[in-house]
Write a structure and sequence with these properties.
654 residues, mainly alpha
Amino acid sequence: MAASSHRLKTHTQQQPPPQPQTQPRPQQQQPNRRSNTNAKRRKRRETLAPHVVSSDGPWCCATSSSVAASPPHARRAPAVIPQDQAEAVLIAEAPPSVSPSPLPMDASPAASPAASVAAAFSSPYPPYPSSYSKFNSALNAGLLNPMSPPPPPPLDKTRSSPTLFDMMANEQDYHPRPAVPPQLPLPGRAGAAIAAASAQDLQFLLQERVAEIIGSCSPENQLNDAEAGDVRLTLSSKDGLTVSLNVHRNILVAHSRFFAAKLSDRWSKQQRSLPHIVEISDCDDVEVYVETLRLMYCKDLRRRLMREDVSKVLGILKVSASIAFDAGVLSCLEYLEAAPWAEDEEEKVASLLSQLHLDSSGAEEVLKRVSLEMATCDAEEPNGGNGGEEILVRLIQVVLEGKDEKARREMKGLVSKMLRENNTASQCGGMGGGGGANRGGDLSKESLYSACDGCLRSLRHHFTLAATSDLTEAAQIARQADNLHWILDILIDRQIADDFLRTWACQAELSEMHPRVPAIHRYEVSRVTARLFVAVGKGQILVSKEARCLLLRTWLEPFYEDFGWMRRACKGLDRHLIEDGLANTILTLPLATQQEILLAWFDRFLNAGDDCPNIQRGFEVWWRRAFWRRNGEPDQQPPVLRITAAAAACENSC
């Protein structure tokens, strides 16, 4: 009794409760209560598990209701209470309406706290639920505020890590996203202050770069020597950045014709004090001006420029030309003539040199490296200005006669790309009225067909030898057929392949020798025929009906015989593309010719299978054209147009 009363007294001494209005509690004598209470408290402390603050259970809502419904003597201010005293205090503070502890039948609400504690410890049932213990522990530890909302529910403790669903559901708890403040316009003074700060930073960076340039000079270099310099030169950029340097009048006058005219002896005598004040405003780049001035103090300009890149040298060249620094201009041109360029730098060099209009021979040497200027120089030659075409014809001839197949394939792709670019440039120049912009840099139709005729003559020669069982040079058949296929692609790309189709359709002699040549050597020839079928079927070659019929009559049968070899031997062969091209070529002929060709194909396909091209779609189109539409649809007379409004208008006018 004494121990329990002492604990409660200690708790109530911090904040005395209001005087209870109930009757005085009767004194009850319970011998040996202290020893029994201490023993049970020690046992309780040993078996008590740590409490986990959680939101499971109705403790959040029960707190507010219990506080409102409890009598005045049950309200207590939160205080720090030891863990071994928390249970007894909670029993004394819990309202009777929500306490699950069973009370004796003869117990009254006015029973003493000591009797309640004794009844709780002596009962075999838990005296209070776990939620009250958790709430009381958190409240006593200062972790909870009675007026704050409950904490969020914890994650499932049985899982080693949260699932993806939990992370998505509690994304704000895992990764809180900081709110990005809206960009509000700054007031006038604040915006001006920021602009001033930026200008100060730029000025500071410029001063640092200029200090680095001056610091990299040799010890004997007197640039920016305050004691020996007699001219105070101020450089101002368009952005308002300024740099002041101490320079020497005699050095400026000796190296620059611009300064020689401005800082003449007459001008120098008119100045009353030293150093003379000179200012150059609206500079494009102050740093480049300082670099140019440093070159005036250097003995070996070329060696100094070797440390710079092309862009920096172009800037120095522009400044040197503007101030008539001849030694600097010559050194920059020598650097540009010897240094390698990137593709984007080539345009910059050509543009700057065309703007400066330099008279020195060094500029001409630099411009010889530019392709446009080289074409201009070639056009001025007395031979007629077709050097570019001669080079292309030579390149094509070298590719056609090459020995290494891998290198030939790579160079064919390169030359084809060059020819496409030249063809596009010439077409754009022709549409813009500047057809001479690509003078001498493209192939003519005659040059291409000349190379084609050479390949065709070689093919006939080796085909004839192979037909007579002379296979010593049979490999040349596939090589020349591949050359013809490549030239045909170029002609189709330039839309000038009509004459090639007519020439190929007239090769009846070659077609007759075809069955006597082994298929392993001749199937490349049928690739040329297949390419023509695709071009005609796509509308890339437009020739007369007679030329199309002659092409099919001459080469369709050899094409059928080699289709199986092409399908198996040619890597990357698009079978469906070839079949669609053949079908469309056949469908461009008269209906009677279509019927003859397609019925013959029907019989061949049933006997050859995959070794015959499948042009079933073309067969179906022919069938619908020939029978289905004519027999299934009634003949419709074309509408007769009558003009009545004009006649009525003429009658009214009369």
